[in-house]
Amino acid sequence: MRTTVNLAPETHEFVSYYASARGISFSKAIDELIRKAENSPPPPAPELEYSEIGLPLLPRSGRVITCEMVKKLEEDEFDPAKFA
User: Fold this and answer.
1) Which end of the chain is more exposed for a tag (fewer CB within 10 A), N or C?
2) How many alpha carbons lie under 13 Å from residue 66 in its C-beta half-sphere?
3) Distance between CA 2 and CA 27 in Å, rounded?
4) Do 34 and 42 touch, CB atoms closer than 8 A?
5) How many C-alpha atoms does 39 have within 13 Å on its Cβ side?
6) Percentage helix, strand, coil for the chain under 3-state DSSP, each rounded to 5
């Protein structure tokens, strides 16, 4: 099937190198990479941590949430797009 796709420059470069290294066409390389992604196992579910009293904890990200940040969020109008 013939299809036109727009690729980011770095994606195009990666597929070009992949195709060249494997000695296959660009189209065949895209097909192989998509099938590999489709058949790869899903990432492991994150393990939840719980506090001493049994409440689930957010994953540690290294960021510190300050009182000022919480106050600013409370003052701002809630916009779901900011939290997506």
Assistant:
1) N
2) 3
3) 10
4) no
5) 6
6) 50, 5, 45
Closest by CA to 46, choosing from 30, 57, 35, is: 57
Work out the number of other CB atoms within 10 angstroms of the CB of residue 44. 6
Distance CA 19, CA 22 (A): 5
pLDDT digit string, tens, across residues 23-37: 999 999 999 999 999
Collapsed DSSP state (helix, strand, coil) of residue 56: strand
Tokens of 64: 């510190």
Query: End-to-end distance of the chain based on CA atoms, in angstroms?
Result: 35
Distance of CA 35 to the CA centre of its chain: 18
Question: Measured between alpha carbons, how far is 52 from 55 in angstroms, rounded to an integer?
Answer: 8
SS3 79: coil
Nearest partner of 59 among 37, 44, 72, judged by Cα: 44
Q: Give the predicted TM-score (pTM) of the model.
A: 0.50
